[in-house]
Amino acid sequence: MSTAPAVPPSPADSDLVRAARGLPVDRTPVWFMRQAGRSLPEYRALRAGTAMLQACQDPDLVTEITLQPVRRHGVDAAILFSDIVLPLVVAGVDIEIKPGVGPVVASPVRTVADVDALPGLEPDRLDFLATAVRRLVAELGPTPLIGFAGAPFTLATYLIEGGPSKEHARTKAFMYAEPEAWTRLLERLAVSAATFLRVQVDNGASAVQLFDSWAGVLSAADYAARVLPHSRAVFDGLGDRERGERDVPRVHFGVGTGELLPLLGDVGADVVGVDWRVPLDEAARRVGPQRTLQGNLDPAVLLADRETVDREVRRVVEQGRAARGHVFNLGHGVLPETDPGVLTHVVELVHELSQR
Amino acid sequence: MSTAPAVPPSPADSDLVRAARGLPVDRTPVWFMRQAGRSLPEYRALRAGTAMLQACQDPDLVTEITLQPVRRHGVDAAILFSDIVLPLVVAGVDIEIKPGVGPVVASPVRTVADVDALPGLEPDRLDFLATAVRRLVAELGPTPLIGFAGAPFTLATYLIEGGPSKEHARTKAFMYAEPEAWTRLLERLAVSAATFLRVQVDNGASAVQLFDSWAGVLSAADYAARVLPHSRAVFDGLGDRERGERDVPRVHFGVGTGELLPLLGDVGADVVGVDWRVPLDEAARRVGPQRTLQGNLDPAVLLADRETVDREVRRVVEQGRAARGHVFNLGHGVLPETDPGVLTHVVELVHELSQR
């Protein structure tokens, strides 16, 4: 009989990181997008009186809010509490997050000159982020911290529309009518997203997730030609993986991306997030055997009765076996009205169903 | 040489109806969802001072607004100017359309009792509709009028959410948690949609379109089990096609339905509307050879430069050749900021590209 060496467990050996790399796991890892947020009473208490973008730049608040769901639910990963517009705000773009609305941009980007006038993100403005990540990594021990950044396209939609949008019509019109300005805008956003992620990895984040929430509003042809290269540039900006530079698992996420799944591997992601519209076994066929899948319970299912929740969780775990690796998650963020007890239950159920 | 009989051309012989039935056409027919509406200055002038739901019940306004885009653009079909919540409003449900928001329901449906309390739609309240349709058919001559109704699922989302929604979380929670009430609600909505369409066909509409705009938020499994039967009930409610009862082409439309396309034939539609996410040649494979396709230019393309518009129109016409028949349209409604001159140009270009 051999004895295991007495080294403390490390996030690099966690089920999350192993599943992301396609390695065998003890149990299917599970975390939830927006697990740190409004579904938790302790979050609402902590955030009271502090604006969202202020909270995201306060290392104490970021640390505590990021840890809350790990303590409460026993999820297999923490995700940095942040907002996709934060790198823009830190760089000096005038953006406010209006409760019940979303990010509102004071001077939307409508011309080439607007693009050129966007300030770049100086790494020395990210001390708050480095501090928060270092503290989190120390507190989390063997639990991995997933770094967070918004993808160039989704950030561009906010800058161009001036706020949240249903149709993203201005964004597409700009993309079609001003291809050079479009490219320059997305290149700049890719540079700042990479800067934002590098600081997180350099301070100990064990994986990164790029949120391209609205990529699914594009046709595959437009996505491939006008967006994908810029998302890839973000991941490439982490360094040369072959030489081991910041070689942490990379997760790509978007909603309504069914038609884009065959392309998403080219972004350079190890893990492709899938929403509830495409069953994971079908998603595995579209994405191909070289990627792990993340998802894909419909967040609205968590508002239903326990029987429905359990049935749907079982289905997702079962269909996830078709992928080379599966990270259980929702297909989009936790809805604010979700009962946190249900989230804890889902973590337990996924672990129980997938225990080797 | 034979001589054609001297009968006047009829909507039943129009390219729209022929394409919908999979018969040869002279040119690809083209119309636009929301062609009657805010993109037209003559519409904005006519609507000034009249609330949306009031306008939809005024036969003079309905007739004139429906005719405006036919006169201006030379489209191959008129679509009845209406709103998907109108049958509910006529039945007595308290709904207001708030400008910039959408339909707002005074007392949302949250319980079984709420479902049972919903008033049914009495056909004798639809005289305004019969009048408008008769006048339109007389005015339109050989140009077909497409009848209009909202599908049970999309109507249910407004009733349950109380208004427009991004996540449709309450709707799904109700669907999962209250399956019997859900079925009863959708059955009732199917009955009133069928009533609404029957009046239009009985007064001369040459085709009908069922708008299930938000069906794409559902997984295929949920759509098949909990929604599809009710959309089929609407079409079945038109009568027995085998016996020639109201045997007009039936169009089904929804946004983001890529995963649902293999199912949509089962709704009983002759024509399946497709948005810009799925190219029409791929959509033809998913829908199968027994249906005509309608779509699928991204409405945002119409905000771009002329070169982009022309390139994308050519692509859609080309890809549409893969279907047994093609009705050119947008993938969703005309955006209010669209230059009407571009719409006229698209009609001419589609006709030119498809002239036999």
Automatic annotation (TrEMBL), chains A, B:
<feature type="binding site">
    <location>
        <position position="213"/>
    </location>
    <ligand>
        <name>substrate</name>
    </ligand>
</feature>
<dbReference type="GO" id="GO:0004853">
    <property type="term" value="F:uroporphyrinogen decarboxylase activity"/>
</dbReference>
<keyword id="KW-0210">Decarboxylase</keyword>
<comment type="subunit">
    <text>Homodimer.</text>
</comment>
<comment type="function">
    <text>Catalyzes the decarboxylation of four acetate groups of uroporphyrinogen-III to yield coproporphyrinogen-III.</text>
</comment>
<comment type="pathway">
    <text>Porphyrin-containing compound metabolism; protoporphyrin-IX biosynthesis; coproporphyrinogen-III from 5-aminolevulinate: step 4/4.</text>
</comment>
<feature type="domain" description="Uroporphyrinogen decarboxylase (URO-D)">
    <location>
        <begin position="146"/>
        <end position="162"/>
    </location>
</feature>
<keyword id="KW-0456">Lyase</keyword>
<dbReference type="InterPro" id="IPR038071">
    <property type="entry name" value="UROD/MetE-like_sf"/>
</dbReference>
<feature type="binding site">
    <location>
        <position position="83"/>
    </location>
    <ligand>
        <name>substrate</name>
    </ligand>
</feature>
<dbReference type="GO" id="GO:0006782">
    <property type="term" value="P:protoporphyrinogen IX biosynthetic process"/>
</dbReference>
<dbReference type="GO" id="GO:0005829">
    <property type="term" value="C:cytosol"/>
</dbReference>
<dbReference type="Pfam" id="PF01208">
    <property type="entry name" value="URO-D"/>
</dbReference>
<feature type="site" description="Transition state stabilizer">
    <location>
        <position position="83"/>
    </location>
</feature>
<feature type="binding site">
    <location>
        <begin position="34"/>
        <end position="38"/>
    </location>
    <ligand>
        <name>substrate</name>
    </ligand>
</feature>
<dbReference type="InterPro" id="IPR006361">
    <property type="entry name" value="Uroporphyrinogen_deCO2ase_HemE"/>
</dbReference>
<comment type="similarity">
    <text>Belongs to the uroporphyrinogen decarboxylase family.</text>
</comment>
<dbReference type="InterPro" id="IPR000257">
    <property type="entry name" value="Uroporphyrinogen_deCOase"/>
</dbReference>
<protein>
    <recommendedName>
        <fullName>Uroporphyrinogen decarboxylase</fullName>
        <ecNumber>4.1.1.37</ecNumber>
    </recommendedName>
</protein>
<feature type="binding site">
    <location>
        <position position="332"/>
    </location>
    <ligand>
        <name>substrate</name>
    </ligand>
</feature>
<keyword id="KW-0627">Porphyrin biosynthesis</keyword>
<feature type="binding site">
    <location>
        <position position="158"/>
    </location>
    <ligand>
        <name>substrate</name>
    </ligand>
</feature>
<feature type="domain" description="Uroporphyrinogen decarboxylase (URO-D)">
    <location>
        <begin position="29"/>
        <end position="38"/>
    </location>
</feature>
<keyword id="KW-0963">Cytoplasm</keyword>
